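Now for one protein, fold included:
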Amino acid sequence: MGALAALLCAVVTVTLAAPSAPAATDPGDRKRTVDRKIDNLKDHLEDTSAALSKAYSSLKDTQDKLPAARDALDKARQAAVAADQAEAEATQQLEVAKANESKAQGDLEKATDEVAAGRKRLAQFAAQIYQQQGFGQLDVALSSTEPQDFADRLAMVDTVLDVQNRTMERLSTEQAGLTALEDHLSALRVDSDRKQKAAAAALKRAQAARQAAVQAQADLEALAATQTKAAKGYEDQLAADKKQLASMQAEAARLQKILAARAAAARAKAAAEAKKHPHNGGGGGGGGGGTSNGAGVLSRPVRTGWVSSEFGMRFHPIYHYWKLHSGRDYAVNCGTPVYAAAGGTVISAGWGGGYGNRVVIDHGLERGVGLASTYNHLSRIVVGGGHVSRGQLIAYSGTTGTSTGCHLHFETLENGNFVNPRKWLNTLS
């Protein structure tokens, strides 16, 4: 029971300020595991109101979602940081590509100017030759009058031709370089365009990641607000439920006094009858028709359903203390007929606080004790008082009062004190 209590205490503890717990691999599996544990605890929760059970469930659900929400926020923030870094790198690569393109553009313009200048010089040289009507070696020789002049003119012609050849070679080289620069610039422009698109895509991803992180933060804050509200609702309902539980305890104490007084009166009456008629024997009582050991005095109060919880002490997972489960629970649908377990007198039929609609039957003296039975959480009561017979319809089952669902809570009392119904019921009940 200690481990059971620890489990439920952990579930209902408000954990907003606690550090983020690592998320389970599958939140659905984790929830199903908790739900199974809750199902296993249902026999400990009969004396809990449906409202408290709902508040408890709401609190558990939100607390169960918090680790996954924190994990989602952490992942979203990490994704946003990674996306921002990728966007910064893409932007930097784009800037480098644009710088390379700009430099290549400058080199191309310079080379274009040099080619144009070379072409201009070559054109001027060609025009000069044309105007002088040729400049061949034969023309030079024929126009020479002196041998020295002839030699000088030949040397000059060779020099001019060398200059012409070098100019044309340089022009050809510059033209080839210009073509290469144009190809290089085209490639850089393609690269710049690709990196421009990559930077735009990275920016879009970064913006989406940042928005996702903002949304994850908002989701977590909304869940935390829901959890806070659920915790407040749980605490308020727990206080109301404990107040209702106190009313049940007061009702039980009141009933105990009434039944103890009726038992004392019945014993006194039996003793007086025994003195008047000493040869008749005494002891029977209130229409029970019991046996010497008590078994079989009472019949099963419902004809369907199964026993969902037995009589005994248990640690209540929400109230956090040991308390007596004062009767036996039969799992039946609301509206199931409920019958008197034995003949007797109806001493109470009406609202019983946390017991909901309740019928109490005094069966008189059995085995020297005053025996009574109670039928609780009823949806409707058929009898209002007077004598009832064994098996007579007295009410219909329900879930009124402090109850988590449809069932019949059946109790037996000896001289006003709760005892295990098994002691008095038929062995097959």
Summary: The CA atoms of residues 178 and 361 lie 115 Å apart. The longest strand covers residues 357-366.
